[in-house]
């Protein structure tokens, strides 16, 4: 590497989503030079990985990026996809980051003499390019690779398959019933979207919990905020770091916000099954879908979480002596009968499958000893054991809001302070000063 011509940056930020741009905003405020590398376009996930009817599941007032709180006239509403994209674009213009789009970082590794080497590919340009940085912030998120199980290969070519990130609306799917696999936030909301469009939905229900949208006269999020839940650091959570593996509760902000009750959908004709276990081609050309038993128990656990959250709100209201509408407890409106554990693809008339079982992280480009045995980064509030290497924007990086619009600003400000402290102890760089992005 020719160090005389290699661009050098005080800080390199990998990822141009809300986390990367929040980091840029805080570094600018601290007067620290940096560059932001983005593989696609800034904030692209909000345009490409969200279906048409997508909206926030948390109220707008929780949206608070650095220097850019929610600026609309409906703080207790839920921004739709176009509104989110427009709000983020206003944030980008406000930050005006030193951003390079269309840059895919292929390697980040520590240098023997200190700092980091980055190799990257620029769209439309041949070969790999290099730069160095004193410090690196990994702000690319944790949802990189769409998860589609190998059993998907056993479905016939006549069945259209897509991941939740590819789903836009019911009209784009071929005729026939739709199998939705997974009932987390995306799966439950996509199943509802299809159901409201009049499509026959077969839902393979997973272990995701659920919560109420409104309870005792207020949004549940408002209650939990008053109770301090969103300020609880991961170290104080009963599950400690295990909370990072939790599936998000399903609820929706659609049409002003409401519960998602899978039992009610079942009353209206949606077919509920347990988790999909196997896809078994038959000799006659049909395909048998095999489901995990225990649907009733899965629904009961989701409802127990729902009622448990409400009970904690009841206790808070009583402890604080607050006036509120009476308490209530959810009672199931439908119970599974004899549970069918198999389903014929042909007889069910399934023409498409939407896989809603999440994403896997991909940090293969980061050559640094900061990962645990499961490939997850180890850190304390984004600070790794390797000097000058940080993570930002991961779920429960520090609090519940770390991977959301509500908490990333606080985390970015913390890292900016850590970075400034590291810079004050570093020897002067021997490479050229930072070049414009």
Automatic annotation (TrEMBL):
The family database entries (Pfam families) matched by this protein are listed as:
Pyr_redox_3
The answer on whether this UniProt entry bears the keyword Oxidoreductase reads yes
Q: Which UniProt keywords apply?
A: Oxidoreductase
Q: Which InterPro entries match?
A: Auxin_biosynth/cation_transpt, CHP04046_FMN-dependent, FAD/NAD-bd_sf
Source species, domain of life = Bacteria
Listed name of the protein: MSMEG_0569 family flavin-dependent oxidoreductase
């Amino acid at each position: 590497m020719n160090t005389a011509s290699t661009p050098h940056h005080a800080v390199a930020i990998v990822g141009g989503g809300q986390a990367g741009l929040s980091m840029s905003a805080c570094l600018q405020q601290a007067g620290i030079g940096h560059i932001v590398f983005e593989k696609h376009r800034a904030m692209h996930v909000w345009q490409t990985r969200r279906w048409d009817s997508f909206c926030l599941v948390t109220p707008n007032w929780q949206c608070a990026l650095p220097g850019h709180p929610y600026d609309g006239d409906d703080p207790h509403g839920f921004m739709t996809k176009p509104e989110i994209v427009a709000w983020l674009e206003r944030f980008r213009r406000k930050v005006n980051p030193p951003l390079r789009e269309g840059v895919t970082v292929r390697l980040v590794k520590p240098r023997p003499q200190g700092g980091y080497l980055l190799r990257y590919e620029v769209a439309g340009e041949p070969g790999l390019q290099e730069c160095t940085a004193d410090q690196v912030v990994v702000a690319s998120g944790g949802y990189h690779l769409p998860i589609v199980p190998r059993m998907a290969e056993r479905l016939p070519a006549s069945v259209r398959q897509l991941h939740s990130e590819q789903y836009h609306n019911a009209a784009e799917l071929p005729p026939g019933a739709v199998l939705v696999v997974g009932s987390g936030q995306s799966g439950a909301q996509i199943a509802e979207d299809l159901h409201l469009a009049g499509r026959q939905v077969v839902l393979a229900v997973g272990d995701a919990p659920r919560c109420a949208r409104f309870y005792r006269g207020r949004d549940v999020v408002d209650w939990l905020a008053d109770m301090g839940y969103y300020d609880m650091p991961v170290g104080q959570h009963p599950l400690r770091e295990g909370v990072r593996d939790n599936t998000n509760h399903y609820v929706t902000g659609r049409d002003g916000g409401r519960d998602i009750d899978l039992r009610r959908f079942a009353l209206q004709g949606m077919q509920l099954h347990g988790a999909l276990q196997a896809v078994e081609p038959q000799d006659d050309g049909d395909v048998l879908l095999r489901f995990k038993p225990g649907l009733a128990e899965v629904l009961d656990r989701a409802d127990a979480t729902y009622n448990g959250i409400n009970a904690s709100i009841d206790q808070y209201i009583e402890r604080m002596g607050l006036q509120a509408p009476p308490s209530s407890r959810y009672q199931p409106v439908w119970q599974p009968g004899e549970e069918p554990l198999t389903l014929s693809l042909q007889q069910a008339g399934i023409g498409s499958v939407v896989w809603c079982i999440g994403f896997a992280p991909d940090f293969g480009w980061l050559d640094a000893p900061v990962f645990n045995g499961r490939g997850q980064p180890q850190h304390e509030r984004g600070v790794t054991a390797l000097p000058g290497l940080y993570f930002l924007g991961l779920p429960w990086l520090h609090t519940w809001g770390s991977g959301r619009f509500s908490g990333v600003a606080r985390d970015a400000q913390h890292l900016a302070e850590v970075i400034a402290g590291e810079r004050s102890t570093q020897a002067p760089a021997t490479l050229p000063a930072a070049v414009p992005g």
